[in-house]
Amino acid sequence: MDYIGNQCPVCQKNFHADDDIVVCPDCGTPHHRACYEQLGHCSNEHRHAEGYDYQAEHQATKAEVKQCLSCGKENDKDAFFCKYCGAPLNKNDAENRQAQQNPAAGPFAGGQAGNPIFATMMDPLGGVKSDADFGDGVTAGEAAKYVKQNTPYFIRVFSNICNLNKSKFNFAAALFTGGYMLYRKMYKLGALFTALQIAMIAVETYLTYAYSSLYNEFISIYYNSFGAGDMVSSLMTFMRDRSVTDILVLYLPTLISIIRIVMMVVIGLCFNRMYFKHCKKQIIKIKETAGEENPETILQTKGGVNLALAVSLLVAYLIATYLPTIITNFM
C-alpha cells in the first residue's frame, strides 16, 4: 500500500517517499520508525481488540477526498486544484505536469520537458508558489483557482504586479475589449465597453448608409484627383462647397476609428491590472460570505470564464458589422 501523503498518527506529519515507515503487523497503521520507537507500540493499539483495520478505514476516507499527486495532501472531492500547491487534481493533468518536471520520465526526456522555461509555462501557477501573498490575504493558489483558464500567464503577471509593479500588454483584451472582459466575467466593465463599441459601430453604420452619396462623391474626387496630380486643390474645392454638417459627417468615421484604436491600446495596457483587482475583490468577497460552504469549491465554480457569452457576442458583432453590407448588395 502507498502511504505517501498520509499522516503519521504520532507526529501528524505527511509521509514522503524517502521516509522510513514502520507498519503495525496487527492493524496495518503506518508510523515513522522514529515515532513508533518513541511511542513503543502502535498508536491504535487500543483498537486492536475491536478488529480495527487501518487499510479499510483509509480506503473509505479516500473515497470522500482527492489526494494531490504533486504534494500528497488531501483535498475536497469536488476540488479541481490542490488547495496547498495549486496543482491539478485530475489524474491525467497531474501526470502530464510530473512528466514535464521530470526530464527522465516519458518520451520527452532531454527535450521540452527538460527545459525549465517550458516546465514553468506548463505549471498551473507559472512557477509561483501557491502560498505567495498577493495582498489583502489573497494567495497565488486562490487566484489560480478563481482564474482557472490560462493560469500560468495570469499568475506570473499578478506576481510581477505585486512584486515589481510591472504588467504586460494583453493582446486578447486589446483586440476584443469589452467582449474579452465579459468572457473573463468582468460584467460591469465589460458591459460598459461593449455598449461603447456597439454605439460606435452603430454610428459608423448609420453614417455610411445615410450619407452614402456624399461618401461616394468624396471617394470619387479623391481617386480622380490623385491620378491627375491635383489632389489637394480638388479636395479643398470639394470641402469649400460643403456645409458644416457634411464636413462633420465626412470626418466623424475617422474620428470614431481613432477613438476605437486608442481604447484598444489603453485596455491592452491596463487590462491585467484591472483583472488582478477584480480577482482579488471577488476572492475576498467569496471568502467572507462562504459561511459553512468550502470557499475553495466556490472559487472554482464562481471563477473561470463565460465562453457561451463570448461566442454570442462574437456572432452579434459579425452580424452588426457585415449584415448591412449584405442587405445592401441584395437590394
Q: How does this model look, in words?
A:
This protein has 331 residues and is mainly alpha-helical. Helices cover 60% and strands 4% of the residues. It has 13 helices and 4 strands. The strands form 2 sheets. Strands 1-2 form a two-stranded antiparallel ribbon. Strands 3-4 form a two-stranded antiparallel ribbon. Strand 3 and strand 4 (74-76) form a beta hairpin. The longest helix is centred in the C-terminal third of the chain and has 46 residues, at 244-289. It starts with 20 loop residues before the first strand and ends with a helix. The model is unreliable at 93-121 (pLDDT under 50).
In short:
The chain has 331 residues and is mainly alpha-helical. Helices cover 60% and strands 4% of the residues.
**N- and C-termini, Cα separation:** 76 Å
* Biggest sheet features: 2 strands, antiparallel
Write down the Rg.
Answer: 31 Å
Are there runs of 5+ residues with pLDDT below 50, and where? 93-121
What is the helix fraction of residues, given as a range?
A: 55-70%
What is the strand tally? 4
Class per helix and strand makeup: mainly alpha
How many alpha or pi helices?
A: 13
Q: Give me the strand/helix succession.
A: EEHHEEHHHHHHHHHHH
Strand order of the largest sheet: 1-2
Please tell me the overall pLDDT: 77
